[in-house]
């Protein structure tokens, strides 16, 4: 890393001239501004019923497009927003906008929203969710909040209590990225969740080897026994679609259907989405 040039001063500002500390401070300031100015927006990825190819809902995914045309992935800015103490503000902005967007769509289209571990350890979360639902008039039954197993590593008691309060609002809870954390099976029995989202890594592997396919089938069957719905993440090919449909998985999500779209594009996608005819194995999506 270049930290400076002997004897010279810089004529042009380039981030790579900055020290790691300066770069980090710079990134944090940019994120602060982006959250304050509500530059970060929700995009929507369709969720499709595997049995009949109908649209079930969408998952809101945060997107940050910078003025220079670059995009910062949520895997980078979500942890950073937690670090600088702005995750709650970001979440509220995004959820409010998503509820308003989703109100314009068909009533049956549900909205899934991610919660980070830190948010579930904040006792005020259920009040804030309730107030956004009240303010926007969005029906709690259409909202599903996604949590991950990492949530329960830090302070399981608060998180469990927060989940119970969210559920009391009529909001549903899904366990995201299932299979990637540890203690997965014990969580399933303990948690009052409604859905299990099978991680993309399993969906990817399951076509390549039979053992992974068996794991996916076992997760679906176990979920059914516990009366939990299942969603498979990261379906990219029609072969994966058919395998997961055969395994009895309820809902699919992935590039086969669509990537995450802006509110406007998602509306267009919904209008153009054609349900497959009865008996047809594959799904015909346009747009
Ligand atoms: P996630 O909740 O598991 O979201 C699914 C991720 O998989 C998304 O990545 C999505 O774009 C990607 N994906 C979906 N289908 C496919 C596929 O067929 N192939 C491939 N390769 N990828 C697919 P994204 O948007 O980059 O988000 C990454 C993670 O960042 C999310 O994982 C979630 O944990 C977090 N995240 C995103 N938005 C938010 C948010 O608003 N709040 C919080 N707390 N976390 C968020
Ligand atoms: Mg998710
Ligand atoms: Mg996920
Ligand atoms: Mg995932």
UniProtKB/TrEMBL annotation:
The EAL domain, residue ranges: 24-274
Signal peptide (residue range): none
Keyword field: Membrane, Transmembrane, Transmembrane helix
A GO molecular function held by the record: cyclic-guanylate-specific phosphodiesterase activity
Protein name per the record: GGDEF-domain containing protein
Species the sequence originates in: Notoacmeibacter marinus
Full-length numbering of the shown residues: 237 to 523 of 523
């Amino acid at each position: 890393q270049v930290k400076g040039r002997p004897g010279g001063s810089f004529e042009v500002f380039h981030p790579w001239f900055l020290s790691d500390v300066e770069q980090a401070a710079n990134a944090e300031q940019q994120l602060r501004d982006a959250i304050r100015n509500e530059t970060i927006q929700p995009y929507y990825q369709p969720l499709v019923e595997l049995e009949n190819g109908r649209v079930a809902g969408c998952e809101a995914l945060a997107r940050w497009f910078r003025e220079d045309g670059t995009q910062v992935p949520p895997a980078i800015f979500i942890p950073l927003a937690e670090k600088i103490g702005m995750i709650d503000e970001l979440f509220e902005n995004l959820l409010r906008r998503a509820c308003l967007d989703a109100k314009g769509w068909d009533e049956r289209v549900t909205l899934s929203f991610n919660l980070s571990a830190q948010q579930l350890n904040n006792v005020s979360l259920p009040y804030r969710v309730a107030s956004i639902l009240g303010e926007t008039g969005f029906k709690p039954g259409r909202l599903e909040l996604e949590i991950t197993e990492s949530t329960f590593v830090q302070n399981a008691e608060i998180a469990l209590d927060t989940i119970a309060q969210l559920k009391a609002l009529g909001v549903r809870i899904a366990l995201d990225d299932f299979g990637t954390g540890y203690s997965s099976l014990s969580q399933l029995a303990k948690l009052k969740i409604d859905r299990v989202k099978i991680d993309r890594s399993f969906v990817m592997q399951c076509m390549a080897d039979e053992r992974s396919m068996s794991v996916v089938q076992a997760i679906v069957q176990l979920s059914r026994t516990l009366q939990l719905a299942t969603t498979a993440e990261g379906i990219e090919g029609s072969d994966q679609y058919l395998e997961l449909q055969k395994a009895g998985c309820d809902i699919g999500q992935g590039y086969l259907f669509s990537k995450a779209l802006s509110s406007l594009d998602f509306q267009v996608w919904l209008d153009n989405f054609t349900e497959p005819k009865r008996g047809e194995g594959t799904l015909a999506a346009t747009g």
